[in-house]
Amino acid sequence: MPDRPAHGLDAVNAMDRAAFVAAFGAVYEDSPWVAEAAWEARPFADAAALRAALAGAVRTAGRERQRALILAHPDLADRKARAANLTAFSQTEQARAGLDELTGAEAEEQRALNRAYRARFGFPFIMAVRHSTKQQILQAMRERVANEPEAEFARALQEIDRIAGYRLEELVAG
Hints:
By secondary structure, the protein is mostly helical. It contains 10 helices and no strands. It folds into 2 domains: 9-68, no CATH class; 74-162, UraD-like (Orthogonal Bundle). Helix 4 (47-59) runs antiparallel to helix 10 and helix 8 runs parallel beside helix 9 (134-144). The model has no long low-confidence stretch (mean pLDDT 87).
């Protein structure tokens, strides 16, 4: 878990736009525009309303902005990207799932699946890995690479929403 303090809902509702974006801009991977748009929905009645506002910003953003959000996510278990550009959230989530402890054979399969997935869909494989093992992640990749492109685009957005929900649980107290 990134080293961030949890915010109470009263404090969240009292934040100006800049403070809100600073606090929640990383919830959606390198896409602070989501928090920027959700700020307009304040005050939030509860954490679920905050989450709904963020998810709504993505849902209504339009196809190109949604695609940019998907493309902002890293390939899973990409060791080159890990040091260079993984967010603190992604580093923690991937490590918890054991993706930093792949065997040589698992790492090679992961790289091959990342390449095949990206070649088929034009964006990285996205999965909320928080409660998954590395074996479950590899299996999901094997299965999802066969999906239809439109279904996988929708699935990527669903997984992003799940990831954001987990991140919000760490950031919002109560």
